[in-house]
Amino acid sequence: MSDTSSTASSIVSGTSTPNTTPFSTSPTASSIITFVDLKPCRTLIPKQWREQSVRRVAPGEIREAAVSLSQAFAADDLAQYLLPEETNDLTKWKLHIDIMTYIVAAHCYSGLVMTSGLDYEGVALWMPPGKTMDDWWTIMRSGMWKLYYQLSSEGRRRYYDEMLPLLHRTKQEIMGDRDDDCYYLVYIGTKPRCRGQGYGKRLINDMLDKADAENRAVYLESSNIINNGYYRQFGFEEKREVYLERGSEPVLLTIMVREPGTWGPMRTSGPVPRLSAPLTRHLQHSHHHHQHHHHHYHLDPHVLKQKLFGKRV
């Protein structure tokens, strides 16, 4: 170390004008620190985004949320299963983003799209009780109708003829008379570089608070067996395994359900569930039980084909 003097500059909170304070580290050396008081940093990031750990995504944010989910599910077996004949990586990626954009849009218009983080680090798509996206307005406005023409012939068979009927039938069988009276976690994903930072936990617990307060169950389909243990920490239990089998290797989907008030390592507190739901609500949902269809993508293939082609096929 030489004994030459030096000048250091440090930005801290202090007086409104620069202030220099000399100090000596040795009899022969001295340094000067300059204290500079800066005004509070101004930002264009909306205040509500910075203050809320979980917030609802608006229609103007559909694309950003869709790109985030596209990244989260880029290596997902189910996502790749639906694009069997696409060999060009760029074409496949663009179609993957299109699919996610349509799905996010449909949930934004008729369900719930929630995000955590300032840059859509975590995104969750929910279908609340009594909601459906099989209506003509949602199908057209979200762009879901385009998917029929964008998928390959085999992709259409896998999507419309295999997956949707299987998921619809399975949910009805497992939930029974609660099929239209539960919260459905359709998608949840975190950007790969942001995993392990609590974004998913916040998104799940945010809706579990609401489900517990309403004494309602939560339903999901896990397309990655590694995630099953994660969901168990919130109180979810495996109910059934189903397979998509049109590919060279079957794709496993694990059906999981969480009953209200179930605790786990990731879910140690929350609203106390009501002892019973209002009778009028049960009567209302029982009446509409066979009118609403909740799928992984919430589109009945026959309904879509009928609306696109004017007849049931």
From TrEMBL:
Protein name (Swiss-Prot/TrEMBL): Gcn5-related n-acetyltransferase-like protein
Domain N-acetyltransferase: 123-258
Gene3D superfamilies assigned to the protein according to its UniProt record, in alphabetical order: 3.40.630.30
Region annotated Disordered, chain positions: 1-27
One Pfam match: Acetyltransf_1
GO MF entry, a single one: acyltransferase activity, transferring groups other than amino-acyl groups
Taxonomic lineage: Eukaryota, Fungi, Dikarya, Ascomycota, Pezizomycotina
